[in-house]
Design brief:
Elements (H helix, E strand, L loop, with lengths): L3 H22 L2 H12 L9 E7 L4 E6 L5 E5 L7 H10 L26 E7 L4 E9 L6 E5 L4
Antiparallel strand pairs: 1-2, 1-4, 2-3, 4-5, 5-6
């Protein structure tokens, strides 16, 4: 009996199987991490955030990190901070992802609720950088909010 055709098919199957394994399965986690890193708005870690300000039209609340996981509200003074909540807020800042870009350079931010945003989040890092995000109106599907970086830039 001649098995030449079967051997060729078997070798072809091995080559194709190897390609699928190396191209699709191996390295999949690394590709997902790279894609997520591209979507991240701020390339920082939670431990690098030392100060957070929540800026509303009528008031500003500022918290400063005083220890490993201890926070103190410095503005307005005299209010005790819930360190767990501030730590949660600090962990959410590096997790802000860019889903879609509606427009690169917009002259009229009012159409997105960003001219006078209801809330602006400002965070300072250990290396002195200031990270700012303006949160505006919800999109028409009501699934996300519009946002702009650093005062609309």
């Amino acid at each position: 009996m001649k098995f030449k055709g079967t051997k060729i098919l078997f070798l072809l199957f091995l080559v194709l199987g190897g390609y699928v394994y190396f191209a699709e399965f191996r390295g999949k986690d690394e590709r997902q991490k790279q894609e997520e890193a591209k979507k991240k708005v701020f390339p920082v870690e939670q431990k690098e955030i030392t100060e957070i300000s929540l800026i509303y039209p009528d008031r500003t609340i500022t918290g400063v990190k005083k220890g490993e996981k201890q926070w103190q509200i410095t503005s307005p003074s005299g209010i005790e901070a819930d360190s767990e909540e501030w730590e949660q807020l600090a962990s959410n800042i590096p997790g802000i992802l860019r889903e879609d870009t509606v427009a690169e350079k917009v002259q009229d931010l009012a159409q997105f609720g960003l001219k006078d945003p209801p809330v602006k989040v400002s965070a300072k890092t250990t290396d002195g950088k200031t990270l700012e995000v303006l949160f505006g109106a919800e999109n028409p599907k009501k699934t996300h909010n519009y946002a702009a970086l650093g005062g609309g830039t």
